[in-house]
Amino acid sequence: MRSSAMLSVRLLLSFALLLLCGYRGALSGNVLAFPGEYSHWLNMRVVLEELVERNHSVTVLVCSASPSVNYTKPEGFSFKVYNVPFEKRAWESLTDDFIGYWMYQAPNSSTLQVGLKIRDILAQMTALQLKMCDTMFHNKELMDNLRQSKFDVVLSDPMIPCTDLLADILGVPLIVSLRFSFGMSMERHCGQIPAPPSYVPSPPLTYTDRMSFLERLHNFVMYMIQSSLFYLHCLLTLDKYYSEIKDSISHG
Ligand SMILES: *[C@@H]1O[C@H](CO)[C@@H](O)[C@H](O)[C@H]1NC(C)=O
Ligand SMILES: *[C@@H]1O[C@H](CO)[C@@H](O)[C@H](O)[C@H]1NC(C)=O
Ligand SMILES: *[C@@H]1O[C@H](CO)[C@@H](O)[C@H](O)[C@H]1NC(C)=O
Question: Which N-terminal stretch is annotated as signal sequence (predicted)?
Answer without folding.
Answer: 1-28
